[in-house]
Amino acid sequence: MASLWGGRFTGKNDSLMQSFNESLRFDRRMWKADIVGSQAYAAALAQAGILTTAERDTLVSGLDKVGEEWESGKFVALPTDEDIHTANERRLGDFVGAVAGKLHTGRSRNDQVATDMRLWLREEAENLKRFLVELIGAAVVRAEREIDVIMPGYTHLQRAQPIRWSHLLLSWAWSWHADAERLQQLTQRMNQLPLGSGALAGNPFNVDRAFLAEKLGFESPMPNSLYGVSDRDFVAEILFWCSLTMVHLSKFSEDLIIYSSAEFGFVQLADAYSTGSSLMPQKKNPDSLELIRGKTGRVFGGMAGFMMTLKGLPSTYNKDLQEDKEPMFDAVDTISACLQIAAGTLSTLTINSDKMKASLSNDMLATDLAEYLVRKGVPFRETHHVAGRAVQMAESRGVQMSELSLADLQTLHPSFSSDAAEIWDYEKSIDQRCATGGTSRATVTEQIRVLKAWVEAE
Ligand code: ARG
Q: Domain named Argininosuccinate lyase C-terminal: which ranges (predicted)?
């Protein structure tokens, strides 16, 4: 059978050209969006008087049959099926005969494909949101259960100040929460309908595009047909969204990979999310997290590649745009898996709270020593210097800072008094950081309250 556009051609396509051009092998996954879009279009054509209601009903039920074939895995693609749009229309013809040829009246694959992709992505975005909510939920559950656990917080990967483990868990959760918000925003922006733009210049049969938009659940029709067929900003946005979310997952993974090493020993991954070594019997490797970290590069690469595809394109539809699908599918598949693996890994790992606590050292309270003096009215710059000298004094004597006597401290500043001994209490240090967003029990509890309510509402 000839292709759907074969009328003006006398020669045949080169066979390599045919497979080069073909996109059914990857765009078949949009079959449902394509059917739903076509059914809405048939309704609009009937409204515009191009189809009788009987013809419309024939097309709609014929399209249902095509959909059933995809659903049950029985759809048989022919070598001449160039993409999902031509494949569905060809199969519709098998079922309903010549009337199938009326479906594409005033429509082009240009407005069709742009519509299908938006429909497909809108549904996927809901799954992505659900996976994010589950991941955030996993972090919040742990944060609530393990709020007593304290650990070193790091900057530059150097011990910095004591924090609650829950505070770290929630810091990841907040970045995922922002990802969920961004996902919602970009799906809102994407929710404009290209269908009814024709090939580029608009629809000549005055189909009611507002009706189409409503039927397909779009906010409104796109306001310009040239823009309608060419706009792929939503693809760029979802690729960026996937990239940024992967960066957040990568940071989470990297933190836990480090903490799972014997040198830290803060966490241990469950067997379900680890693998062994084929050579070294003792090994338990954090492959789940390493794969998430590694796949970040792949998702980012898809985004960079697609931006290069867009760069230099003239207006309206160009076949280059067929290159929009594989990176989008791959990024969505990859991040769907990563979000679920991250949730599983996070909710099943065990922590070693003794090891976390034992890794705290007095010098992590040097800032608290400075702050002690601030509370006695000494300017911070001066107290910072005094605390630095206390660090040095302890270091030169080979003792912990807490072992410096009151007399020692008083040689550094006269404002030290007997209550200075209380500086060396990690819990106290942590709970002093009680301004909104801090690591104190009260402010961590507040974060848990807000995120938990969000998860429950989603
Ligand atoms: N398979 C094509 C794509 O994915 C569909 C649009 C084809 N349009 C055209 N004018 N050849 O972009």
A: 364-430
- Structural domain including 187 reads 110-151+161-194+230-354
Tell whether 328 and 236 lie within a shared domain.
Answer: yes
Give yes or no: residues 92 and 114 share one domain. Answer: no
Instruction: State in Å: Cα 242 to ligand 1 middle.
Output: 25
* Helices (H) then strands (E): counts for the chain: 18, 6
> What stretch of H or E contains 161?
strand 158-164
Q: How far apart are CA 457 and CA 33, in angstroms?
A: 28
- In whole angstroms, how far apart are CA 203 and each of 44, 104, 372? 11, 11, 74
Q: Name which of 124, 172, 70, 170 is nearest 337 in CA terms.
A: 124
Regarding beta strands 267-268 and 158-164, do their DSSP bridges make them parallel or antiparallel, or are they unpaired? unpaired
Q: Which two tokens stand for residue 111?
A: 């407005």
Instruction: Please give the model's pTM, rounded to 2 decimal places.
Output: 0.95
Show which residues are catalytic. 156, 277
If asked whether residues 184 and 36 sit together in one domain, one would say no
Please tell me whether residues 339 and 257 are part of one structural domain: yes
Residue 317 Cα to ligand 1 midpoint, Å, equals: 8
Between the CA of 322 and the centroid of ligand 1 the distance, in Å, is 6
- Same-domain check for residues 136 and 245: yes
CATH number of residue 366's parent domain? 1.10.40.30
Dump strand ranges (E) for 329-431.
350-351
Per-residue pLDDT of the chain (458 residues; tens, 9 = 90+): 567 777 888 888 888 999 999 999 999 999 999 999 999 999 999 999 999 999 999 999 999 999 999 999 999 999 999 999 999 999 999 999 999 999 999 999 999 999 999 999 999 999 999 999 999 999 999 999 999 999 999 999 999 999 999 999 999 999 999 999 999 999 999 999 999 999 999 999 999 999 999 999 999 999 999 999 999 999 999 999 999 999 999 999 999 999 999 999 999 999 999 988 788 878 889 999 999 999 999 999 999 999 999 999 999 999 999 999 999 999 999 999 999 999 999 999 999 999 999 999 999 999 999 999 999 999 999 999 999 999 999 999 999 999 999 999 999 999 999 999 999 999 999 999 999 999 999 999 999 999 999 999 99
Same domain, 299 and 407: no
CA 190, chain centre distance (Å): 16
84 CA: nearest ligand 1 atom: 1
324 lines ligand 1 (CB under 6 A): no
Name the residue of 5, 28, 109, 121 whose CB sits within 8 Å of the most ligand 1 atoms, as the mutation to test its pocket: 109
Question: Is ligand 1 within 6 A of the CB of residue 171?
Answer: no
Q: Is residue 201 part of a domain?
A: no
What was the ipTM of the complex prediction? 0.97
